[in-house]
Amino acid sequence: MTDVQNRWTTRRREKNRRMTGLALRSGSKIVDASGIDDVLSTLIQPGDRVSLEGDNQKQADFLAQALADADPERLHDLHLLISSVSLPAHLDVFERGIATRLDLAFAGPQSLRLAQLVEDKVVTIGAIHTYVELYARMFVDLPPTVALLCAEAADEHGNLYTGPNTEDTPTIAEATAFHDGIVIVQVNRIMSELPRVDIPGDWVDVVVVSPRPYKLEPLFTRDPAKIGRVEILKAMLAIRGVYERHEVVSLNHGIGFDTAAIELILPTFGEELGLRGRIARNWVLNPHPTLIPAIESGWVESVHCFGGEPGMERYVAARPDVFFTGPDGSLRSNRVLAQLAGQYAIDMFIGSSLQIDGEGNSSTVTAGRLAGFGGAPNMGNDPHGRRHSSAAWLDLASGSGASRRGRKLVVQLVETFKAGGTPTFVDRLDAVDVGTDAGMPLPPVMIYGDDVSHIVTEEGVAYLYRANSLDERREAIAAVAGATPIGLRHDPRVTERLRRDGLVAFPEDLGVDVRRADRSLLAAKSVGDLVAWSGGLYDPPVRFRNF
Amino acid sequence: MTDVQNRWTTRRREKNRRMTGLALRSGSKIVDASGIDDVLSTLIQPGDRVSLEGDNQKQADFLAQALADADPERLHDLHLLISSVSLPAHLDVFERGIATRLDLAFAGPQSLRLAQLVEDKVVTIGAIHTYVELYARMFVDLPPTVALLCAEAADEHGNLYTGPNTEDTPTIAEATAFHDGIVIVQVNRIMSELPRVDIPGDWVDVVVVSPRPYKLEPLFTRDPAKIGRVEILKAMLAIRGVYERHEVVSLNHGIGFDTAAIELILPTFGEELGLRGRIARNWVLNPHPTLIPAIESGWVESVHCFGGEPGMERYVAARPDVFFTGPDGSLRSNRVLAQLAGQYAIDMFIGSSLQIDGEGNSSTVTAGRLAGFGGAPNMGNDPHGRRHSSAAWLDLASGSGASRRGRKLVVQLVETFKAGGTPTFVDRLDAVDVGTDAGMPLPPVMIYGDDVSHIVTEEGVAYLYRANSLDERREAIAAVAGATPIGLRHDPRVTERLRRDGLVAFPEDLGVDVRRADRSLLAAKSVGDLVAWSGGLYDPPVRFRNF
């Protein structure tokens, strides 16, 4: 090779050098679990940028633990890219001095410990991203040297079968494999013939059989038994005041009991209103068990998923007209494509938040935690550039001439007070101080007020997209903020003007009878009811088998 | 099968029924070109939604022609999804009555004829999308029944090799294959072993060997010989006034001579300023030949591509440290992932437009044409929701408290007049009337004024992101609009205030010596120079071999 060629092939030559050092059995990419230490210490070098797969749901936990157990004399100063920091091992790697720098998207269960490690200067954070931002940067300025991924099964050639939780594996594999990075995958088992191929074998360098199946959390399961009158009232207001009014056909639901309540009253309250087939037909969301009654009642035309949900495998496989499934019959999810759909192809995002300020900015960040938001900020914003039209999008149109355009519905669905009497509506988000304390360049706001089109509380619906000024937006928010400080300062005389101008609607304005808001409206009242609706196809995880 | 099972498997059973009707040779997915008529008439049914691959660059032209040649008695009322309507056959299908409904993203070469067919009610348009919107809807409300795709090569099992122009094939294949649609692919050749697998064989139902290689246009090649003083002056202003000022590290360049000029003066003008390594390191764009000198001079750390570019294959393959390439050595592009990167992972989009109005709205649509914009609207907007920070993004920050946030740079680079003396700055975009005449719900604006952060003309730079009101934005635009009607109405006395407040900068404010703006600054002055810079690796298409 000439010097000129060498100059432009440093990544490829380095990869070849490391792979040669590993000396795989000829013709096979499979390594026994006992050899993992040798694999990591041969294929990873100090200073490497390593993408460790910790998705929203599935975790490359065996590889994470192996990395945490590595010899820090040999492996140090790694730069880790982890979308969801959710295992103790993810931070053990830092405490042991193996890694020093972290780019992440979300750190739910580890957010307290992460905050401490940042304060102690054990972890240096590059940035807190959304999921797709982090993946996008893997194709720009953060291409991984090594990716540590997980899949359900592999064959001898390294072809991968992900099963229902495809999630982010194809995207990280593509960023790494096509820039001369090294792709190492833990699998639950080796099969001579895979049910289907999710990722081609020539994108994969090494396959390790994990001694135990990868970890997977049932993040999207909500027990209908915990849904009360207030959630049901909000669900009724949302359906009449938002879904029906704007004819919302395609949508994403966030996680939570509020949206679960909506899913569960579509077949009852929604049916009474004659809305089946008119609203909520095309969904972008994970396989929520609480959506089963609506699916079985013929409400749902399609569901595309970011990931899977434990227990929903057999049900999803039996409903291929609705879910995206493969030739093997099981779900194919894909976070990047679902986010793309959520950004560009749906009418509405609706979700909850812990705090909302007077201008409508919201955040789930609270003191002492370095959390992040996963995918919500990408779903919860109006894409803002030119977009194709849909009826709902056009219904929110504003401006004139060339500037006229529609708007994606971004709906916040909250109770004015949370459990324990803590107000949801606050003068100042905790996120502002958290950001300052943690030295963040900007406060960790999840969804900005100017992106929010509606706020639904148990008091009513605020149509923020109709506000002509920031002051009007503040007034409309305060009018549905109940007895919180923000609500109490609101001048009730303004309310009538807001109602008249269509900025605020109360239950009576929407034809919602508050007395009907009780559990009898729920199409399923327990996890057991969901199992029954599914014809026995839904297998709830053990912790939900309380019916 | 029980009735319950049947109710939820209509798509799968229908696919199986059609595939059984085709009777492929056992164990093979390959069909001879002569059998294409049988394939299409067996696998497609009247009323189907068919995704016909017409990407920005590559075209499934053999399949498009075969569809246009089908018997309208047998095949009719199809709903076509075509991202780029660019072949006569794409519209012949409608004229022959085989298809009636069209969802598209772009119709450059066929835009006049398309407008006529819509007027004649031969074509009914669903919506005009951006590329990724159309793909996103394939996972929501427009899943294809059948996809007609193209690839470089296939093996007996239907595994596909796309070569450098991966583009959109994996995305459309995923949307179709994983919702029980039928995937039919034309390939240039069959190989017993593929150089790499881009799409797994079990996503593919039928492979047809095309009698000729698929069509591919060199859309991103600009001849440096056609770059003049004005383009060079604008390039100097952009580099000093935007790239250097905001330290733009990651970026996308639109197509055109303006951005080509920037690419070509980085190694000369940019080098003098000591900017190498400080700006323009990470790129999201197709393999522009005019970027070769900057790459060879060590400016470019990485390039991720939407598609490929004819003639750039050997050069790209020889620069794997820079480009994303596969184990076979050749480029792997991917439009959806490059768009994702352009949306979420870069500091800046810079591109040109045909018309800009006084508020900064811009469009490339002109009278009588139903064009569309491909990917520009997605690159040319500020994603608007929460985003991770970069230095450039933060440099444009505004707001306070929870509302404070940065901004993606969206730069319009135009000459005040186009060839023939037509003004670029206009009181009213042609797009407004085109939209009305064509019965569009909104005018076909490409980039909205409130998303544009800067406008660069030969007069200077307007820093629109600093405008505190729509009036100030109008003034700043007018100040760089030269002798166009909008520029002439501008009160020159306002200009001094705008300069003082940093809303406008002229060449002298930016330290740009206008006299130096000549072709001697171009690192390459001809296509021949580009070939020389590439060390003979760049093979320009015939039409550019004029040096």
TrEMBL record, chains A, B:
Signal peptide (UniProt feature, chain positions): none
GO molecular-function terms, A-Z: transferase activity
Gene3D superfamilies per UniProt: Glutaconate Coenzyme A-transferase
Protein name, per record: Malonate decarboxylase subunit alpha
